[in-house]
């Protein structure tokens, strides 16, 4: 079977690596890919959101399975377009992709199906949103409705900050059409974590719970990023707590949709807050997270392609997930200045040595291969993943290898997974991810 992976990040490199191990897979294409994926499969010069070109390519090459990494193609309806041509593709259709592309859509479904989430109000005019601020307590969270590259969520400590957030979203239109509507919701207190699960519209098959690090600098300081690292499993949950999330959040959503003749097929990602009253949903995503994928997929034993095919075919109940019980820690190496202005084209040194280390995986993201060298070509450049019998051991292994890699301006957090080594249920103020 020929497989097409859509995307260019470390998440997609990780997906290629796992799919490459499947006896069902003969050849892998990736569009557009990066310097690392070119060593495993064939990079195709088609952007991830160029759906028409991707469809034509898949038809021409007789691709048997397409796996979508990023959210934008899913939001634009890539699954519907592929299915119209009789092509197998992994992910939800455009309507259900609104679970990520429209926070209003997601919150209203959560309310409808009695899924725990913060209380909220929806607004389509800035003045009415500002009037609402007179009636509520602070802090609050102001969210643009649509996709905003992870920057459309603002924690506001007082009324003035909330007014500024409203203006940024709805008046200045910083996030374009994503700001036509916004949500103002209560600010939950607790620790954030994520659970990703396969769904065929009826059966849920979860992966290990993980925690990521969104802020650019140590101690959760600096601007939000796409993610500077992650670890799994999180010590926040015991089996009872994990089962509570599956039974109280995932199944109510999937079963509620099924009653409306809507089958959610793909990966369902729940961004959660563990509060004093139990887990509460901050957001849903409709694809593998990045860098969460880099710590949950390597722990997956068995055939990823087979699980995906069973998901698409509505036979997920026949699949079983076995996981490596070791801990996994991912450290993201980024270009200097990220997530703001940064330079490209810097040679990366030490990769060959790093990739040969035991219990280590190195996934490339913002890289390109040129004249036999691997150069930086984006904000997040590499994900270095370490395995260990404990989180501390996995962390130590990952950072030891980070020390063997270098490129001009390289920056990274030095505290990935430290929160797991402290009191695991210590509380923090408000969500800092999204």
Characteristic key phrases:
27% strand, Dna Ligase, domain 1, five-stranded antiparallel beta sheet, 28% helix, D-amino Acid Aminotransferase, Chain A, domain 1, alpha+beta, five-stranded parallel beta sheet, 434 residues
A few lines on this structure:
By secondary structure, the protein is of the alpha+beta class. Helix content is 28%, strand content 27%.
Full CATH superfamily name of the largest domain:
ATP-grasp fold, B domain
Give the terminus-to-terminus CA distance: 36 Å
CATH hierarchy: architecture of the largest domain = 2-Layer Sandwich
The overall pLDDT average reads 94
Poorly predicted sequence stretches spanning 5 or more consecutive residues:
424-434
Return the CATH topology of the largest domain.
Answer: D-amino Acid Aminotransferase, Chain A, domain 1
Largest sheet: 5 strands, parallel
- The tally of structural domains comes to 3
Order of adjacent strands in the largest pleated sheet: 3-2-1-4-5
Shape: globular
Strand runs, count:
24
CATH C-level name of the largest domain: Alpha Beta
Using only CA atoms, what is the Rg? 21 Å
Beta-strand fraction estimate:
25-35%
């Amino acid at each position: 079977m020929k497989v097409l992976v859509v995307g260019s990040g470390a998440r997609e490199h990780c997906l290629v690596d796992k799919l490459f191990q499947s006896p069902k897979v003969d050849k892998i294409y990736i569009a557009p890919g990066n310097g690392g994926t070119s060593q495993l499969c064939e990079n195709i010069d088609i952007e991830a959101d160029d759906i028409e070109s991707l469809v034509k390519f898949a038809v021409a090459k007789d691709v048997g399975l397409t796996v979508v990494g990023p959210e934008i193609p899913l939001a634009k309806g890539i699954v519907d377009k592929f299915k119209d041509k009789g092509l197998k593709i992994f992910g939800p259709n455009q309507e259900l992709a609104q679970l990520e592309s429209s926070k209003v859509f997601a919150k209203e479904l959560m309310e409808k199906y009695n899924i725990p989430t913060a209380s909220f109000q929806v607004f389509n005019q800035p003045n009415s949103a500002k009037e609402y601020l007179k009636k509520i307590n602070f802090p609050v969270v102001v969210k643009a409705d649509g996709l905003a590259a992870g920057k459309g969520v603002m924690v506001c400590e007082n009324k003035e900050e909330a007014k500024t957030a409203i203006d940024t979203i709805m008046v200045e239109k910083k996030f374009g059409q994503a700001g036509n509507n916004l949500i103002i919701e209560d600010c939950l207190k607790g620790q954030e974590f994520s659970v990703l699960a396969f769904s065929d519209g009826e059966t849920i098959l979860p992966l290990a719970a993980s925690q990521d690090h969104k802020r650019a600098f140590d101690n959760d300081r600096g601007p939000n990023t796409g993610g500077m690292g992650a670890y799994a499993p999180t010590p926040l949950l015991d089996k009872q707590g994990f089962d509570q999330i599956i039974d109280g959040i995932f199944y109510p959503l999937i079963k509620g949709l099924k009653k409306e003749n809507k089958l959610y097929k793909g990966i369902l990602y729940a961004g959660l807050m563990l509060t004093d009253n139990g887990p509460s949903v901050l957001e849903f995503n409709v694809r593998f997270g990045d860098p969460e994928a880099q710590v949950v997929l390597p722990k997956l034993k068995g055939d990823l392609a087979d699980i995906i095919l069973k998901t698409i075919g509505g036979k997920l109940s026949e699949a079983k997930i076995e996981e490596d019980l070791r801990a996994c820690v991912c450290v993201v190496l980024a270009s200097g200045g990220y997530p703001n202005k940064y330079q490209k084209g810097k040679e990366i040194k030490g990769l060959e040595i790093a990739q040969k280390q035991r219990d280590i995986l190195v996934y490339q993201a913002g890289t390109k291969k040129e004249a036999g060298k691997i150069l930086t070509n984006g904000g997040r450049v590499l994900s270095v993943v370490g395995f260990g019998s404990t989180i501390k051991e996995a962390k130590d292994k990952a950072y030891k290898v980070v020390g063997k890699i270098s490129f001009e301006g390289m920056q990274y957090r030095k505290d990935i997974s430290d929160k797991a080594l402290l009191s695991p249920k210590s509380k923090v103020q408000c969500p800092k991810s999204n």
